[in-house]
Structures are given as structure tokens and as C-alpha cells.
Amino acid sequence: MIEIKKLTKQADNKLILRGIDLSITQGETVAILGPNGAGKSTLLKVLATLIKPTSGLVKVNGLDLKKDHIEVKKMFGYLPHSSLLYDHYTPLENLVFFGNLYGVKDVENRARKLVNEVGLSFFINEPVKNFSRGMIQRIAIARAIIHEPKIMLLDEPHTGLDQGAITILNNVVLSMKEKGCTTLMVTHDFKQAAAICDRIIIVKYGKIADDFKINSQSLSLVSEKYQVLVEGVS
């Protein structure tokens, strides 16, 4: 599904990614953990075609990220720190707008269904500018999946969410997984990573320090490995 070989990214004479090698199969839900400045969000932005790598190879479904970036971009649903929503638009207007960009058929019905799924039907015609951080994040989640992407790229998706919104987000990720969607999620929230992911990648100093599968939502395993590799606790 995703093949990354010897990926590097340099900015302002600083090497942020230092030769990433990574293979991710279809349907995997992968958490990317690591300290601030480790290169986690940079890796996600490279995959989302928002920034160009300095060197290395990235292939998605056999397509070269550099040569076929337009086709590759259609496969992604990207949820960055900012919502990317238009704050003077309503949830329905935002989702219809982004859905049309992707050529979604019957886009208004699809948008209404997603607003309902994220629990905001009562506010469907209210401008987003009046929403709380958690409400905005819910609509941003819907925006990221309006076109039913094959791959979701989520950057700290649980930040600022209350428990209800966290549950909604987790259910979205798990339901997309059932449809064969692959998810890469940058997070500092070990609990949520353990709850919904089946694989953990720990990044440190721009390199992959560990890569392992988890079973039975093993939060203790995630915490122990992170403490040893990143915090130096043995």
C-alpha cells in the first residue's frame, strides 16, 4: 500500500527525516509516536504531498509520489492541526464544497450523513465560526473522509476533543478500517493509539526507533517501549 525507502527531508540546513524506511499494508491502523521535533508531522506532510522530500522514494498503491502526486492525493484524507474549514460556511456547505472538489456523487446526501455520524445534525445550518474547538474538529473529521479515502493521515486528531468526540473519532477510524482504509495517525495520546491501532511506530531524531504490532489494546506495552527508547527509562 505505502512503500517508503531512504526518505530524507532537510530544511534550513537541518535534517528532519534521516533515511526513513517503512512499509505499510492496506487496512493497517498505524500510530506514529515520538517527542516534539522528531519528524512525525513532517513525515505526514510529505505523504500528503504538502512538502517535497529532499531524497528517497515513496510509492502509494504502486504510484510514485513525485510523478503521480495528483492521483496519489485523491487517495488521501488528511486531518492536520488546522481544520481547513471555511468558518463562514455551515457544516453542510463545507462538506458539499470539499465533496465537489473530489467529485463525490450525491454529495449533499453524503454530507448530511456524515454530519449526523459526527453528532452535529442539530447544528447543520449554523456557521462553523460559532463552533467550539471540539465541534470544529468533528466537522474536520467528516471533511477528511467525505470522499471515502483509501488512506487517512491524521495529525494529533484527539487534541481538544471531549470524551464524546474522542469516541466518535475512534469509531470513524475503526469503521473506515472495516472498509479497507489504511490509517496513519501522529499522536501523543498513548491510550487512544493503543485503543484503535494495530501497529506502533516510534520516531526519534528523524529515524524509526521501533516498529511493532500490538494486540488486545496493550497500553502498557506502548508506554514501556516509549519510556525505554525515548525517555531512557529502563
From TrEMBL:
The keyword Transcription does not apply. Keywords: ATP-binding, Nucleotide-binding, Transport. SMART domains: AAA (SM00382). Residues 2-230 form the ABC transporter domain. One of its GO terms (molecular function) is ATP binding. Gene3D superfamilies: P-loop containing nucleotide triphosphate hydrolases (3.40.50.300). It comes from the Bacteria. Belongs to the ABC transporter superfamily. This is ABC transporter ATP-binding protein. It comes from Neobacillus driksii. The lineage of its organism: Bacteria, Bacillati, Bacillota, Bacilli, Bacillales.
